[in-house]
Amino acid sequence: MAAGLPPDALGRRGSCGTDYGAVRYVGSVSRTAGIWLGVEWDDPQRGKHDGSYEGTQYFKCRHPKGGSFIRPNKANFGVDFLTAVKDRYGLNDKQDVQYGTGNTVVFGTKTVEFVGMDSVAEQQRQVQLNKLVDISVRECAVSHAGQEEEISRTCANMRHINLSKNLISSWETVIAIASQVQNLETLNVSENKMRFPSTSTLISSTFSNLKVLALNQTEITWTEVLLCAQGWPVLEELYLSSNNITVLERPDNVLQTLKLLDLSDNQLLDGNQLHLIAQLPRLEQLILRNTGISSIHFPDARFGCKTEMFPSLKRLAINDNKISQWSSINELDKLPSLRALQCNNNPFMDTEKNPETLIQLIIAKISQLEVLNNCEILPAERRGAELDYRKIFGKDWLEAGGHWNPEKNKPSEEFLASHPRYPALCLKYGAPEEGELKGRQPLTLKNQLLTLTIKCPEKPEQKAVEKKLPESMTIQKVKGLLYRLFKIPGSELKLSYESSKLEGKEVELDNDLKPLQFYSIESGDCVLVRW
């Protein structure tokens, strides 16, 4: 074995410069002298081959160009946890001079010797380490725990540890470090490609106080998550992005305290996988960004009813997915606690070219939503969205069997499947009147654009802006636009306008359901906003 090469090098994580990888082979290579390490690199572009050389397969790689051979002296197998902490926080032996550890001091012509200065410096280091509560040793080449109980003696007050992007090879190493931290609450071991237990292990109290755990890019599977989770009795936040998790399983008797789950950047088999985690009783936030899901369905609840799945879910992120049908957005109204939604970059959003109408449709379809794509939904904006929705689809409602007379009102199942909230909106605002029922008008050149100046006369700090708006745009939609434009808090807007042709005359825009053209507004006029 080469000098300095760890006896357990095979299978361990290591680095060479800024590149990380796992040792898959230790030994000789044909027609060369000495020992070589066969490394499968995290970044395949760093490699040269699949583990074979001159017709001999020395090790296997997942990528055809993911492997190469390096000499042992080029490999860094890392340091123990405490060494990394001392290096990161400037508390190792090299910094002893700042504590005055020289043994002699000269006073004039006399040299005075101070006995025990080394031990004093060591005590001062101990005190400094014991004060650390939040510790980050990200990218510090940590590979093992070090001497037994050394961490617990030295860093007794740690609560939050960032161990991301190191050289940790197995979950056992994480346990060896964490078991010496009595009150560990937050642990980040992301970007360590490590081995996890494949069978049930003895449950220890290592993570008895752990509330936040990040395992992004660790190659953990959902089965391994559930096995390890037996030791996470009070965990509240679990981050699992970019782990190639495709299939979920029901978490029986584990993760019952979980409030946040991040599964982003894992290509789930289908949306039905979500049903397997739908009974987590305390889950409030679910992050499913870029998981490949194309539909969402809660089959236990009919139109207009609430599902028993995800009973506590308040915040849902489904952005960057393949959801193409509005029916999935309809389904989200079945979630009893949903308050915030992120859904950008899904194909269904391309079905409506006017972004204002798109936002209104989503708001109208999900009754309890308060935040959409990180923007607060104000009461006036919701009211306008629901009134417009009720009007836009009024003709479809009538043709499907809807009627102003409750006894004759029998819309078809097909209509209710497409517009499950429509009956509730009719109850809330009344059935639409015949004069309101105009077909949907796409925003085209036929809808004349008005160039208007928008001012806030009572708010001089707000600069006037110029906007182009279709003359068919209702006052309610204009208000929704202005709420976002001026970031106005939840209050009632009052709009009026001054004509460029009639100086000094101000006309109040007092009917939310009327379009701009109803008030004879023309390009060049000035809209005045007050609140």
List the helices and strands and how they pair.
Layout: E1 13-16, E2 19-27, E3 36-41, E4 52-53, E5 56-57, E6 67-70, E7 79-80, H1 81-88, E8 104-107, E9 110-113, H2 117-131, E10 134-136, E11 142-144, H3 150-154, E12 160-162, H4 171-178, E13 186-188, E14 212-214, H5 222-228, E15 237-239, E16 260-262, E17 285-287, E18 315-317, H6 326-332, E19 340-342, H7 355-365, E20 371-372, E21 375-376, H8 379-392, H9 394-399, H10 413-418, H11 422-429, E22 449-455, E23 465-470, H12 475-485, E24 494-498, E25 506-509, E26 526-530
Parallel strand pairs: 7-11, 10-12, 12-13, 13-14, 14-15, 15-16, 16-17, 17-18, 18-19, 19-20, 22-26
Antiparallel strand pairs: 1-2, 2-3, 3-6, 4-5, 8-9, 20-21, 22-23, 24-25, 24-26
Helix pairs in contact: 7-8, 8-11, 8-12
Number of domains: 4
State the strand order across the main sheet.
Answer: 10-12-13-14-15-16-17-18-19-20-21
Report, as a whole number of angstroms, the end-to-end distance.
79 Å
What name goes with the CATH superfamily of the largest domain?
A: Ribonuclease Inhibitor
CATH topology of the largest domain: Leucine-rich repeat, LRR (right-handed beta-alpha superhelix)
The CATH class name of the largest domain reads Alpha Beta
| Main sheet overview | 11 strands, mixed
Give the C-alpha Rg.
32 Å
